[in-house]
Amino acid sequence: MERARDPVRREREDERAAVAAAAAAPPAAARLLALQRSVGNAAVSGMLARWPWTMPPVAPPIHTPESVRYDAARAERDAFVHGGAKGPTTYDPSKRNPDNYYGGFDVTYDPARQLMQVLVKGAIAFLPGMALVAGRAVAKEASPEAAAAADEINKLPAADRGAEVLKWRWSKDGGPDAGDEQNLITAFRDNVVATWSGKHQLRSTKPYWEDVGAEVAVDVQITEGAQGATDHMQVNAYKVPSTMNITKADVNRTDKSKGAFGNTLTMNSATVLPKAFNKLVHDIAFDPGTNTLTADAKSRIADLGAVLPNAPAGATIAADDVTVTVAGAFEAQRQERFTAVRDTLTAAGVAAGRVRFREGGTGDTGRVVVGDGQVQTSAAHEMGHMFGLDDEYPGPGKYGAGKKTEHTDFAAKAGFTGAQHARSDSIMSGGVNVRPHHYVTFLDALKVVTGMEEWEVGAARQVGDFPLGGPGGTAPATPPDTAYA
After folding, report:
1. Domain locations along the chain
2. Less Cβ crowding at N or C end of the chain, within 10 Å?
């Protein structure tokens, strides 16, 4: 039978044990010397910098191997942060992604400011969108709208054609819109900067470096004149009348030997305006007094459903939802009409869970909206190509709905799976939204300029100071707004 111990006697024994342990502990100086020998002076200096300036009344606790790794990592991190800006370095997307064949930019990273700067430089030529040749208008801007306008001008009396052609010239060549050249450059830059800067953050994934991040700031410098050796693109800008919204624009690598500096952006004076069409928004109608879509509405909805593929299984990139707003004389009728629209979409392959109902009041009309429905500008979209991203909108051939883009596999390596050609509100499809996977080339450029692979998309996180916070598990979970989407 176990005998109960006297509480007073047990307390005295505990006190004697504590005194003996304290006597056996090595002096602080010896422990400090041993730590310097194991991890180096720099790591120890970083550790001591986190202690109060006055020595604590008791010596720091004996460090474990994990704390040694922590202090060494923090010392290395501090040296990196205070080591100055990295770059500028030219980033060529084609060298990092073999499926890519255009784009280029300079990248600089300042770890002390946690700022990554992306710069695209270009030389611009202001070209007439129309010319008068032997008394007849000839379109120079390559859109169908310009060709049709030339035909209309040529129907006019010969004496009246010159005045109409003049509307297709920049102000420096006698055109009617004063200051239109500089206005284009300014509007182009402002649009690109607002669309692409600061949409997502990047952070280090090195252990105990999680508080090192990068805010992305995009800039564009365009100057008139011949393309220089450090200009990433030649910009050919055609003038179109201020009354016309022609959205034709494209980026191509026209000189492969120049790599990141061999690109040509072809655009016009309307490239900075919101597009005159919006393929994300479709107005529909029902036969009066019925729940039956008109033949035209049903056909257009079926065509829309065919370019709205669902996300592949296991994809981290979600497919856009579709919002259906329907009117009707009463609630039951509106629900029936919504069902008619949803069934038409699901018959084309759209998952029913992606189709949402919205109340539309009374009447016989409705509206189908993909994503948020906002219309893009060509300027913001085209610069996505300069950043090394492919189109995501659907089309014929390799652009078929559900097929991979040129950045699909590249994005998947960074954890963003399921990029595909589809009608969506993505900036690289038909909308304005820069998704996390659109930052994968910025992410890769950060790896290049820092010479460090341990980066990912996401906001920097707090790292607890050992031993106060304890190593590991101190950083909060990834906030919802930085999760993959």
Report:
1. 88-124+180-276+375-457, 129-168, 281-370
2. N
Which residue's entry shows tokens 């916070």?
469
- By residue count, the chain amounts to 485
3-state secondary structure at position 304: helix
Provide the whole-model pTM.
0.83
Distance of CA 283 to the CA centre of its chain: 30
Asked if the bond preceding 467 is cis, omega within 30° of 0, the reply is yes
Are 130 and 137 in contact by the 8 Å Cβ rule? The answer is: yes
Q: What is the pLDDT along the chain (485 residues), one digit of tens a residue?
A: 443 444 444 444 444 444 344 444 444 445 445 545 554 555 555 545 444 333 344 444 455 578 889 999 999 999 999 999 999 999 999 999 999 999 999 999 999 999 999 999 999 999 999 999 999 999 999 999 999 999 999 999 999 999 999 999 999 999 999 999 999 999 999 999 999 999 999 999 999 999 999 999 999 999 999 999 999 999 999 999 999 999 899 999 999 999 999 999 999 999 999 999 999 999 999 999 899 999 999 999 999 999 999 999 999 999 999 999 999 999 999 999 999 999 999 999 999 999 999 999 999 999 999 999 999 999 999 999 999 999 999 999 999 999 999 999 999 999 999 999 999 999 999 999 999 999 999 999 999 999 999 999 999 998 865 443 333 333 333 333 333 32
